UniProtKB/TrEMBL annotation:
Composition bias, Pro residues: 17-26
InterPro entries associated with the record: Acyl_transf_3_dom, Nod_factor_acetyltransferase
Species for this entry: Streptomyces thermoviolaceus subsp. thermoviolaceus
Keyword Secreted: no
Biased segments, Low complexity type: 391-411
Keyword field: Acyltransferase, Membrane, Transferase, Transmembrane, Transmembrane helix
Compositional bias segments (type: Basic and acidic residues): 27-44
Name of the protein this chain belongs to: Acyltransferase family protein
KW Acyltransferase (keyword) present: yes
Amino acid sequence: MFHAASSPGSKRTPLPALRPPAPEAPRPQRPDTRRGPSDEQRDPFFDNAKYLAIVLVGLGHAWANIMSDNRLLQTAYTVVYVFHMPAFIIISGYFSRTFDLRPHRLKRLLTGVLVPYLVFQTAYSLFRIHVGHTGDPHINLFVPWYLTWFLCALFVWRLTAPVWRMLRRPLPVALAVAMLASVTPGMGGLLDMQRILQFAPCFVLGMCLKPEHFHLVRRRAARIASVPVFVLTVAAAWWATPGLQISWLYRNAAAQDLGAPWWAGPVTVLVLFACAVLLTACFLAWVPGRRLWCTALGAGTLGGYLLHGFVVRGVLYAGGFEPDWMHGPLGALVVTVVAAAGVTLLCTPAVLRVFRWVMEPRMDWAFRPVAPRTAGESGGTDGRAAVSGQAGTAETAGAETSEKAGAATGR
């Protein structure tokens, strides 16, 4: 018999002590895209830009009612209208660059853009008919009125985003289409196609941009260079205001419709596009990149956009802009402060919660269940990782909210 000490088993390496089982990793929570990405995923820069731009929209709509005898206000209105709509559209195109025609994104497009357009087009038409007693006493869902044109345009632009992304040179093609639209009179108000086509280059430009392009305009050198550009723009607007036909800035008519020769249309499209891009870059150069008191309001710009029109038109219909003092310096100051404060209030989370049912309806009852996406499915159409600068989760989860809530403007 072998001694116990010489047994082969006695020389084996002792087994390690048992470890307690590792706690089960929490299951990843699918982001609630209905409310947008979390604060860690959102870039404060874009929220700040959207808030400041929506304030400019409200100011422009308010100034339009009192600027007839105020050259300084006319100058400010002209400068603002050169870039504030293109700025919104460029940001909208930037967040639409990964949009495709998959079911879950089409559902977001329908519920987040088309449904609000139909609701607010109806609401504004009823407001105009029964409160303002102006215009055609009928509701036409195919002819956008007042500020609803942007939702209609955004629906078309996003629906055609895969086509623009497929082209080798999308921006020159978009500019060519815009120039052709500017020499096509009598297009009419159907879907406001003139604006859709003439503003399309701004949307396509946004789709072509990458995070590093926004980093360039956020540099200190760009901020310094923007000052003389704005000064020269204000001086040029002051000089041109008396003879300027402001309708050119709205992009809602062909050159012949404005009484100009046909060649003026393409030239104006190119000039306005260049000026819009330049001033948008200067505007973005001064947008803070850190979290501020107004950063959270950037997520509620859809409410500020769609609701402020009722206030401005309500004051107009009630004769609030008619007193003589309203057309002087004091009136301009009062209107500016009240309009900025009003738009700010309408962008607050409380207002967004109240109107979420119509601005961001779920409408699950209207759609078939969408199969969950696989783990390897990319947010882009080419399957590659999202470009650097902002987390891919933020791009895919927050894009659909940003495209409609951040990009909202109108005349």
